[in-house]
């Protein structure tokens, strides 16, 4: 079973997480490093970061079911879990259909993949599922430790907690920019929301379920949309936005610092929330 994650983690592409960065965020009190960008089945970066650190959990956010078969992913899970028990959470999901040639309904693919992980002996409590909509959130509750939603709001977190029920893991990702100038902060955040997410059906559909309009989604995203999806301001203001997720039912929030150098942001947020 995976160790307790704590209330704050970081979310970054594996190429953006050096051993030194991992060691620093562990010292700051972060509980998990979520590796995005569809890590490959070998999960070499998970090994690397666990070897470089002492106790922080490393999670995948997420391994893409369309591009990496369950069997080699399960082999990697067993290798890592044997070397670093309690420190690896296997996050899996279907990503977005625009990125692959889809020959199977996404929901059916998820069920089949989870069946294969069962057959390969990957414990339910050591895996999480990328989930946005109600049907997949329910599946996450039934077949995994819980859900790892991406590009969401505290309102989505509240709805997700209601669907998952108590006792199931819920770790939303949220982007942050440490800058008190909203114009500058939006200039950093808007491109990271627009490309690719405002062109992907699953994210657009979820944002509309949350009440955002076609006008909000047009022209790179309205200020209202960008402000909801990219927290910005000083560390206290960012902490308020993170706390809103926690108050809505999140167990942990995986923050994605968009600043060119993320460490000052991680340090500032940790000082408010983890000290």
TrEMBL record:
It comes from Amycolatopsis acidiphila. PANTHER family: CONSERVED PROTEIN, LUCIFERASE-LIKE MONOOXYGENASE. This is LLM class F420-dependent oxidoreductase. It comes from the Bacteria. The lineage of its organism: Bacteria, Bacillati, Actinomycetota, Actinomycetes, Pseudonocardiales. GO terms for molecular function: oxidoreductase activity, acting on paired donors, with incorporation or reduction of molecular oxygen. GO terms for cellular component: cytosol. Residues 20-116 form the Luciferase-like domain. InterPro entries: Bact_Lucif_Oxidored, Lucif-like_OxRdatse_MSMEG_4141, Luciferase-like_dom, Luciferase-like_sf.
């Amino acid at each position: 079973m995976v160790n307790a994650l704590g209330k704050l983690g970081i979310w970054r592409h594996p190429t953006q997480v050096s051993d030194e960065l991992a060691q620093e965020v562990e010292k700051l009190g972060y509980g998990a490093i979520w590796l995005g960008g569809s890590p490959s089945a070998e999960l070499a970066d998970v090994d690397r970061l666990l070897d470089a650190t002492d106790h922080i959990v490393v999670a995948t956010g997420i391994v893409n079911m369309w591009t990496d078969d369950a069997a080699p992913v399960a082999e990697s899970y067993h290798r890592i879990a044997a070397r670093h028990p309690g420190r690896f959470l296997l996050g899996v999901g279907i990503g977005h259909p625009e990125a692959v040639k889809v020959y199977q309904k996404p929901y059916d693919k998820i069920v089949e993949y989870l069946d294969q992980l069962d057959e390969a002996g990957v414990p339910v409590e050591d895996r999480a599922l990328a989930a946005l909509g109600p049907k997949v959130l329910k599946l996450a509750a039934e077949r995994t430790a819980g859900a790892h939603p991406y590009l969401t709001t505290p309102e989505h977190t509240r709805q997700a907690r209601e669907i998952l029920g108590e006792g199931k893991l819920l770790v939303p990702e949220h982007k942050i920019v440490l800058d008190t100038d909203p114009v500058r902060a939006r200039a950093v955040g808007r491109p990271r929301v627009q490309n690719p997410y405002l062109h992907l059906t699953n994210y657009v559909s979820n944002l509309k379920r949350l009440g955002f309009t076609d006008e909000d989604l047009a022209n790179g995203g309205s200020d209202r949309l960008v402000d909801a999806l990219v927290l910005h301001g000083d560390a206290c203001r960012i902490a308020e936005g993170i706390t809103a997720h926690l108050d809505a039912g999140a167990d942990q929030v995986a923050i994605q610092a968009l600043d060119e150098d993320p460490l000052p942001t991680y340090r500032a947020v940790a000082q408010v929330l983890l000290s």
